[in-house]
Amino acid sequence: MIIAEPFKDEKQQEQKSQPKLLGAHLEDYALIGDCETAALVCREGSIDWLCWPNFSSGAVFAGLLGTRENGYFSLKPAKEEQITGDDWRYKPHTLIVEKTWRTAKGEVLVSDFMPPRGKHSDVVRIVRGIRGTVRMRMDLTLRFDYGRTIPWVESVDHHMRAIAGPQLVVLRTDAPLHGEDLSTVSDFEVHEGESVCFVLSYGSALEDDPESFDAYDAYNDTQKFWTEWTSQRSYHGPYEEAVERSLITLKALTYRPTGGVVAAPTTSLPEKIGGSRNWDYRFCWLRDTAFTLLVLLHQGFTEEALAWRGWLLRAIAGSAEQIQSLYGIGGERQLNEWTADWLPGYEGSQPVNIGNKAADQLQTDVYGEIIAALSRTPVGDDDIWTQAVRSMVGNMLDHLVEIWQLPDSGIWEVRGPEQHFVHSKVMAWVAFERAIASYDSHSKHDDPKLEERFNRWREVRDQIHRDVCKNGFDKELNSFVQAYGSKQLDASLLRIPLVGFLPISDPRVIGTVQAIEQRLMRDGLVLRYDTASDVDGLPPGEGAFLACSFWLASVRHLQGRTDEARELFEHLLSLRNPLGLLAEEYDPELKRQVGNYPQAFTHLTMAFTASILNGEQGPWTEVMQQDQKC
Known about the structure:
Blueprint: H1 10-17, E1 29-33, E2 38-42, E3 46-51, E4 59-61, E5 72-77, E6 83-90, E7 97-103, E8 106-113, E9 121-141, H2 144-147, E10 152-156, E11 159-164, E12 167-173, E13 178-180, E14 183-191, E15 195-204, H3 215-230, H4 240-252, E16 254-255, E17 260-261, E18 284-285, H5 286-298, H6 302-315, E19 326-327, E20 338-339, E21 353-354, H7 365-374, H8 387-403, H9 422-442, H10 448-471, E22 473-474, E23 479-480, H11 495-498, H12 507-519, E24 521-522, E25 525-526, E26 544-545, H13 546-558, H14 562-574, E27 585-587, E28 592-594, H15 600-613, H16 621-624
Antiparallel strand pairs: 1-2, 2-3, 3-4, 3-5, 5-9, 6-7, 7-8, 8-9, 9-14, 9-15, 10-11, 11-12, 12-15, 13-14, 16-17, 18-19, 20-21, 22-23, 24-25, 26-27, 27-28
């Protein structure tokens, strides 16, 4: 006889019917990737996020933004194993993550990586028996289309195929496989000296299956790829490990076929737990990419700079009036924003946004970022001003002459009314300043028409400088402000001395730094701006934007406050997860990383600041000491 147990109350019934969220913090994830897409691997052995076949494709593992039912790939000791200890690390100088599990009966090492891509993209997981015998459990739940579509699965011996429309994923292993609750699982033992491999490959259901390969050869090839790449870096100083990890992360976020750099491999990780500031960062922002290239160039990585220049020329081809602030990884312009409403969001933070309508915004500062990066990008045997680059820069500057006085959405992509943001005006000045400096350095000044054009640009450059000093500085606050006519501060103003708009010793710069330290710092970290001011048209509340604190550390060092700069920098390093990764923001109250993860903007500013603290010549050092007057 079956007796149904009644629910005690409606609340208990609701809790029992609701799916359980994963509960892992961002700090619990490692990044692996093949320079075309990337996955997040939890310290507990589960891959909870992976978009295939590229960064901006639909996720096949979306558990990070939902539940186990939305897709994951777990590999860990079986439940009956008594865990006595573990270690978690990257193999030095690589993007291979290794997890050691120690149990009462033995010890295993799990290596996770994505080999440099050939025709197909693969995830490889190798379990090595180190000591004794350990029972292991593999659980693969594939859900295409951001966790929504259950595939058709067929399994033959140690080979599994999952198909949904044109998409195909193949799993190969020597371990036994069987189906269980719409998942593919494996229970097996690993003895000392033995290894068991799992190779997951993405392909097209309309073509032949991806070819099999030797997992150990792939491991060696992946290790060689990363160690050879990292050996090119020029930084050698007290923060060498942190800088190298940041550079590896930036490389992993580069889409190798085109040279574009995504801001992060994730979407909709909230800037505040439970909040709605959730954006899709799997695209290429001109600003972030230009910053990234300046840092990589400074570290000696010219191949990425040349690839980025090619991506840029293709992406913004045509009229300068059509330039967007962000593009797809291949230069796509249509990035329509929609909501995956079947996903509950990271720790219940909704909405889960796919696409990003910030692509339609005017963000004037990107012109300065682009031209600053181009002015530092080598072009082989010719100088920087090849015909294609010269024409593109000229068109951008002519367009900027017409639009620099317009309000825009600014560096923070506010979704409220456009304003005359001071940082945007400063970076418009940078656009003219860098172009003119490069022209003066590389040209013979023998073309009257070209000289006339540059004279016009010089006039506008100086006009912008006067305008910012007149309308962007508040004498009562003794500080530059977020926007003309505003009383609000903005951490982006810290870049005024970093880009050479005013020298570090200028009293207005000193006053601005003091005002930001007094009014925008919380628990030792810098906020972007006061979100309660309603400037961005969104509900208030977010973490501290980590790049802003790195900017402050750089500025403090340039002011001669070296001990304070180093103290802040090392505090920021302490916020990294055990593998050296950082998200977009940090919540000082919850003491957790928040926002998309890992974020290129955070890691590039970390690498830049480390160089500044090490006394190196940074990307903007040649203009930092210019005594600009207004």
